[in-house]
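User: Could you write out the 3D structure of this protein bound to S-adenosylmethionine? I've included everything you need below.
Assistant: Certainly. Input first, then the structure.
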Amino acid sequence: MSHQVYFLGAGPGDPELLTRRAERLLRECPVVYVPPLYDVTFAELLLDKEVLVPFEFYFAELLDRIEQQLLLGPVAFLVPGDLTFYSPFQALVDALGDKAIVVPGVGAANAASALLKKTLDLPGVCSRAILASPRTLGDGPDAPNMGDLAAPGVSLLIYMNNLPLAELVAQLRHGYGADVPIALAHRVGLPDQELIVATLDTIVAEVGDRDFFNLNTPDRRPALTLLLVGESLAADADGAWWDYRRDHIWKPQDS
Ligand SMILES: C[S@@+](CC[C@H](N)C(=O)[O-])C[C@H]1O[C@@H](n2cnc3c(N)ncnc32)[C@H](O)[C@@H]1O
């Protein structure tokens, strides 16, 4: 039987957030490609395995290595969060074709929403959510900025921020046209996780000199910080919402 390459959604960093399927497959793989940080937090699950850092290889070399490793057994990649958004592994998945199996995981958005204890699409408050990053919006004269995505009723999830916080907040303030809640979720799922909940008008002072986005370090890697913005962060859902749905959607039609 030919072996497979498993791209396992590894969650935001806490191995407790692995699915049972991902954990089972990980146990079966003698070779695992592990991005930095996950070698530390997943150390217990990686004992006795060959652990490699995927970013140490160019693409063709990586594919050659995987083909060799597949002759001996299955291979796993730990995918930070989940493949759905901002994952660097798509080219590998495509090149491996039928040999690649993708297993979903808990994305940073899911983990931050749980930390906040907030759904991000509360009816009557937020009608849509947008995931974006200023890093990938482009920088040509016609490129949109984050303010173009912000609007009343939008929950905005901002990945890999590379703008000074005051500049980002000014763009958002323009888009929302009001002072709306913002949460900064840092290193979610790790023992030193931090959550700052403020508003657009107060977040800059609240954060102070802290460099939550690696803007002042030689390290070019995006920081483990997710920003969430929008009215849903501070809205309370009342029971009327529940009863409306029970009457109109959930209740069996003949009762
Ligand atoms: C390259 S993207 C990977 C996202 C990943 N595919 C996911 O679904 O969560 C990296 C960005 O995700 C966010 N992120 C990832 N892990 C995080 C964590 N533990 N805490 C907060 N934000 C995190 C940060 O915005 C970070 O810059």
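The two ends are 54 Å apart (CA to CA).
User: Perfect, thank you.
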